[in-house]
Design brief:
Blueprint lengths: L4 H17 L4 H8 L3 H13 L3 E3 L5 E3 L1 H23 L4 H14 L2 H14 L6
Amino acid sequence: MKIQKSSEDYLEAMLMLKERKGYIRSIDVAEQLSVTKPSVSYATKRLRENGYITMDKDGLISLTDSGMEIAEKMYERHRHLTNFLVDLGVNEAQAMEDACKIEHDISQESFEAIKRHAEEHFKSGNC
C-alpha cells in the first residue's frame, strides 16, 4: 500500500519530536508542521486506522514498527538531501525546504546514487 505524502510528513515529524522531546503529543505535531489541531486529529485518526501509530489514554502518540520504518526512511532522506544541497552551496533554510519536497518523490535508486556521490565527493561525508 502506498502511503500519502502528508502521512509521511506526519510520521517524520513524530519521529523528530520523539528524538527531541522524548514524547509525541498532537499539539507538538501541529506546531512542528504548522498545521491546525483539527488537521492533526484527522491525520492521527488515519494513521491509527492504518496501523502506523498508537495513542495511549493520555493522548501520547507512539509509532508502531511500520510507522517507525516509514518515519526513519523519510528522516534519513531529509537529512541526506539537506546536507547534499548545503554541500552544493544552497543555504541551509532553503536546503531543508527543498529536501522536504524532494524526499517524497525521488526513487530509492536515485537517492542511493546521490548519497554515494556525496560520500565520495564532499568533505562532510555526512550526506
